[in-house]
Specification:
heterodimer; A: about 290 residues; Rossmann fold; Hypothetical Protein Tm841, Chain: A,domain 3; about 40% helix; B: Serine Threonine Protein Phosphatase 5, Tetratricopeptide repeat; Alpha-Beta Plaits; about 20% strand
Chain lengths: ~290, ~525
């Protein structure tokens, strides 16, 4: 059975920070999570875009909270897709970070049949978007379930994700700080260099100042990659466009042939947990 | 036997106390933090105080006790070297009164303690005195030889020659031996004792505390014994003060266990006027709670003990979970202070950051005497210590941390702006007492009439090679910084700038560029 872009839909959730995916690819959909300020609830990207979110975040007395899509939200999308596609690949944020995967699974079971496959990607944000783009490349040339599984497994092993935050407070409040807690609470402007491994936030190192954080990104990027158009890169920022620009320049200088496939703003949901000033850097050497 | 030991040490103590200020003034760098006279005095004091308590009266027992007291009370590099001289002398004294053997053993122990022995220091003085003893000299002859050597030190070290002073440690050591000699021969001290300023309760009270709770209460009862209560409270914390009479005692102690302190009072009478204040900032507490609640409380493999002076600096180090030993304003922490912090740290291994060149040896002594696995990263400034701390990871071993922290500390260029406490001529820089003095990586580089001029010159030196981040730690009595900050921002627009109130004494401004 051959999977193609014509017979297979891809469903992301909004934590992929890839809101224009459905515009670029007719077989893509995005199911939004929710962000809540007090009694007001908004659909991520749909009812609150990043600029408005960060503006509100700045003024908020109490920090917002987030919640996963309901199974009904997923079911509505799956039902819309079911008559038009033979297969649905539903790629979700790591189940260790959100209950989104569980909602999607419930919806898939409710729909019945084997049409929808829900995949726990064990990652988040632009790294989820890069994975989806890799899947799409394979769909566009024709692929199989087995090949997709092998690709996802390889992506999970080989993709790299680095991020740094202005303060670990946002991760701590959301309970998503993991082992990085040991790096928190200091009074110097320390930038922790963080990654997500097996769905958990892991501290790699800490340095002082943005310039050193980027130097750290650059050195890890350089030591783990070779220059080629197969090298796919994503950059994401939370209300820090100049930092994204600086990272982009770094990528151009270090690996001029790499393809920067994703440059995005962290949406309201990921932004709630990472906080303003966060910069994420993602890469993966796809072989095609 | 104990009584005569007591008298001998009292003689040494009187002599060094009388000369403390003079020896402090011999310090090459005219900044009164951890001066040699003060460090030697406190080290001798610790021996004298140990002997005042009851203890062994036999030769071997006394020798062991005195060695231990000198080691535990050792402050600063000079205090540590003195403690080794005392140990060497005591090792011999345990068996003999032969002066030649005693001085030679003292000299050998001192040389062994220093990794790279430098002549023109205490080491030269103790060796010269040992030579004199071996040539059959009596104590007065040995002291005379010591005096000659002290004068010669001026020619032996270029830095002393330039500053036109003799070596402070050597001078102090000879004063100690002179005091021993005077006590033994029952003669008055050769040099008349000058009035000295005590480092009594007041100074101790002003020290910052590593403990969380400031606890104050009054005990009322009959036949209260202040000394006895003080002794028991001393086990619980520091900044200890017990004053009053047999009917009422006022107690002040910084401790992590105020309940235990109160129980000691309740056991003796009625307790009143209880005040317990949490000295740590509330915000920090809140954050700690928040973070530790979600982190699942992984056991740390390694902890940090850091020496720091100034409220703000203490808070900076503590915000990285380092246990802070007070660097003191005019004295260095003792080996025992550092050792206590090491043993109290909540991890099986510890990295120590001395953050002052004059504390490195005490830290190394503490490390050697600790039960835990300890590494010393020999940081010579607070700024280097902070840079090292950023590289610390509690999940790694002390050895792994020490390597990463050493590298991080080495990557930072440090500077300081201070006021010369007397005329100084060093490295071709000439500064008059009361004028501003700028240092880069510990060396004087500029003097001047205004803070702005000197701070600017230090800055340009630090920023001589491309740097990404500049950290400023303001001290007590720091001048207005805004003009300097504006200038930095204008001249180095790319530079990230961080300013903290450090609160350190003696240095209105500390700088770090990395």
């Amino acid at each position: 059975m051959t999977l193609t872009a014509a017979n297979t839909a891809v469903v992301l959730d909004s934590t992929a920070d890839f809101p224009d995916a459905p515009e670029r690819f007719p077989n893509f959909r995005v199911v939004p999570l929710y962000v809540r300020f007090g009694d007001e609830s908004f659909k991520d990207y749909v009812e609150i875009d990043p600029p408005r979110f960060y503006e509100r975040l700045q003024a908020a007395v109490d920090l917002p909270t987030t919640s996963q899509p309901t199974p009904a939200d997923f079911l509505a999308v799956y039902e819309e897709l079911a008559p038009r596609f033979e297969h649905v690949l539903s790629l979700q944020i790591s189940s260790t970070l959100s209950g989104t995967f569980a909602s999607a699974q419930t919806a898939a079971e409710t729909l019945g049949g084997a049409k929808v496959r829900v995949i726990d990607t064990r990652t988040v944000s632009a790294s989820l978007a890069l994975l989806a783009l890799g899947v799409q490349r394979r769909l566009e040339r024709g692929t199989t379930d087995d090949e997709i599984d092998a690709f996802v497994a390889r992506y999970q092993r080989e993709h790299r994700l680095l991020f740094t935050v202005n303060t670990l407070e946002y991760l701590a409040r959301g309970g998503r700080i993991g082992k990085a807690a040991a790096f928190a609470g200091n009074l110097l402007n320390v930038k922790p260099i963080l990654t997500i491994r097996d769905g958990e936030v892991i501290p790699l190192k800490r340095v002082r100042g943005n310039q050193k954080a980027f130097a750290e990104f650059a050195s890890l990027f350089e030591s783990t990659t070779t220059d080629s158009p197969h090298l796919k890169v994503g950059i994401a920022h939370a209300a820090a466009p100049d930092r994204m620009q600086a990272l982009w320049k770094m990528v151009r200088a270090v690996r001029p042939h790499a393809q920067v496939e994703i440059q995005t703003t962290l949406g309201a949901v990921v932004g709630t947990h990472a906080g303003p000033g966060t910069v994420g850097f993602f890469w993966f050497d796809d072989t095609e | 036997m104990r009584e005569s030991a007591r008298e001998l040490v009292a003689g040494a103590r009187a002599s060094i106390e009388a000369n403390r200020r003079r020896i402090d003034d011999l310090n090459v760098y005219p900044v009164p933090d951890g001066d040699t006279g003060t460090n030697l005095t406190l080290t001798v004091r610790s021996v004298a105080e140990a002997l005042e308590r009851d203890g062994p009266g036999d030769r071997a027992g006394l020798a062991h006790e005195i060695s231990r007291a000198a080691l535990m009370g050792a402050r600063g590099n000079s205090g540590v070297i003195l403690s080794q001289i005392v140990r060497g002398a005591c090792d011999a004294l345990a068996e003999t009164d032969d002066l030649a053997r005693v001085f030679r053993s003292a000299s050998d122990a001192a040389y062994r303690a220093v990794k790279k022995p430098v002549e023109g220091t205490m080491l030269t003085a103790i060796r010269a005195m040992a030579d004199a003893a071996e040539h059959g000299g009596d104590l007065p002859t040995i002291v005379a030889r010591g005096d000659d050597t002290v004068v010669q030190t001026r020619e032996m070290l270029p830095v002393l020659a330039e500053a036109g002073v003799v070596d402070a440690g050597a001078a102090g050591l000879v004063e100690i031996v002179r005091g021993l000699c005077a006590a033994l021969t029952d003669e008055a001290l050769a040099a008349p004792p000058e009035a000295t300023e005590g480092i009594g309760l007041e100074a101790i009270h002003q020290e910052l505390s590593r403990y969380r709770y400031c606890t104050v209460f009054v005990v009322e009862g009959d036949g209260l014994d202040a000394d006895e209560l003080e002794g028991e409270l001393a086990q619980l914390g520091d900044s200890l003060l017990v004053v009053g009479d047999r009917e009422a005692l006022k107690v002040h102690v910084h401790t992590d266990d105020p309940g235990k302190a109160l129980s000691l009072g309740v056991a003796r009478g009625t307790v009143a006027g209880i005040e317990i204040a949490n000295m740590h900032a509330q915000t920090q507490e809140r954050e700690e709670r928040l973070l530790h609640a979600v982190s699942g409380g992984d056991e740390a493999a390694c902890a940090v003990v850091a020496v720091a002076a100034g409220n703000g600096n203490r808070a900076l180090f503590e915000s990285f979970d380092a246990a802070v030993v007070d660097g003191g304003s005019t004295m260095n922490p003792s080996t025992a202070d550092i050792l206590a912090a090491i043993e109290r740290a909540a991890a099986p291994e510890v990295v120590v950051l001395p953050n002052n060149g004059n504390v490195i040896m005490s830290a190394e002594q503490a490390a050697e005497n600790a039960v835990k696995g300890v590494r010393v990263v020999p940081t010579r400034s607070l700024q280097a210590g902070l840079a090292a701390l950023v590289a610390f990871d509690p999940a790694l071993s002390a050895a792994e941390n020490a390597e990463a922290m050493h590298e991080a500390a080495g990557a930072v260029a440090t500077g300081a702006v201070t006021v010369a406490s007397r005329d100084v001529q060093l490295n071709g820089v000439s500064v008059r007492s009361g004028k501003w003095l700028g240092l880069a990586d510990g060396e004087p580089v500029v003097g001047g009439d205004t803070f702005a001029e000197v701070a600017g010159a230090v800055l340009e030196r630090l920023l001589g090679e491309p740097r990404g981040l500049l950290t400023l730690l303001t001290g007590e009595d720091a001048p207005e910084l805004e003009p300097l900050l504006d200038e930095i921002r204008a001249r180095h627009p790319e530079l990230e700038l961080e300013v903290h109130e450090g609160g350190q004494p003696h240095y209105p401004l500390l700088l770090a560029a990395e």
